[in-house]
């Protein structure tokens, strides 16, 4: 399970960095928005799996994924608030 989470995070980071590289170095507010958007997409995917699947393993995974990604997004929002950073929409976050 941890491998899947790490792989998903790495894939999102690689996608974001590749797109960002083509556009120049992203700013901290842009990175914050990319990370939050990626997490939100995973939450929505987990919710969709919970709505559609009857498979216990899929539902268990989706429940864990939703919970984990909500916790990460909550911590990310607390951090940007603490650092006084306003997440900024950008081409990379839109591409996700």
From TrEMBL:
<feature type="domain" description="DUF4142">
    <location>
        <begin position="27"/>
        <end position="92"/>
    </location>
</feature>
<dbReference type="InterPro" id="IPR025419">
    <property type="entry name" value="DUF4142"/>
</dbReference>
<dbReference type="Pfam" id="PF13628">
    <property type="entry name" value="DUF4142"/>
</dbReference>
<protein>
    <recommendedName>
        <fullName>DUF4142 domain-containing protein</fullName>
    </recommendedName>
</protein>
